[in-house]
Design goal:
elongated
């Protein structure tokens, strides 16, 4: 069976309310106006340092404070990473079906690894995943393919499918040379037709069939 590696935010979980809460706690502490959910969601995808960089630019904060404000935001986020976060509908059933079919499952996310693992545990998802690679594990985050290659290696190597929701995920799969299944209801910013993908789905009930078809293509 092929390994199946998932992005986390916008793919398996809707997490931007907790990210927004951490960002706005930081902003209020700096005397700046909070950001609305749409703005924070638009900043998600390239990891926390890049998100904070975009927040700093949006609110005109000193660029030289980036490292400090990233640390502050991460601290707030780590305090309550799953208070408002929940899996998308059908995620648990799909993960159960994939596991029952013999697929090895992993996570490859630009979210820092400590809160990523905490969220998986809090939401009852941790037991599905034999590997969790967070954005602070290696030097370069996605779309550099090294994180995805590491995820596959930790699952035993061999063939794999990557499941994600964003332009960053599509570029990562392409760079890694792996088939990409696009979840269309996450945090993507581009039309589906403009994103490279091997399959697309809007309902997690479709995912086991999508993986089966991609696995058959890999085996052909």
């Amino acid at each position: 069976m092929v390994a199946v590696v998932f992005d986390l935010d916008g793919t398996l979980i809707h997490s931007t309310l907790d990210i927004q809460a951490a960002v706005n706690r930081m902003l209020v502490g700096e005397g700046a106006e909070p950001l609305d959910l749409a703005a924070v969601t638009s900043f998600v995808g390239n990891g926390l340092p890049k998100l904070v960089e975009r927040v700093i630019a949006a609110r005109g904060l000193p660029a030289g404070d980036h490292a400090r404000l990233t640390k502050v935001t991460l601290g707030y986020y780590t305090e309550a990473p799953s208070a408002l976060t929940h899996p998308y509908p059908g995620v648990i059933a799909a993960l159960t079906a994939l596991t029952a079919a013999g697929h090895r499952l992993g996570i490859c996310t630009n979210k820092p690894e400590v809160p990523a693992r905490a969220i998986l545990a809090d939401l009852g998802l941790a037991g599905f995943f034999a590997s969790v690679v967070g954005g602070d594990r290696l030097t370069l985050p996605k779309p550099d393919p090294a994180m995805l290659h590491l995820s596959v290696a930790e699952l035993g190597g061999g063939t794999a499918v990557f499941v994600g929701d964003s332009e960053v995920d599509a570029a990562t799969a392409e760079a890694a040379g792996l088939p990409f299944a696009l979840y269309t209801e996450g945090y993507r910013k581009s039309p589906v037709a403009e994103m490279p993908h091997d399959a697309a789905f809007a309902d997690f009930a479709e995912l086991p069939g999508v993986v089966s078809r991609l696995a058959a293509r890999l085996a052909a």
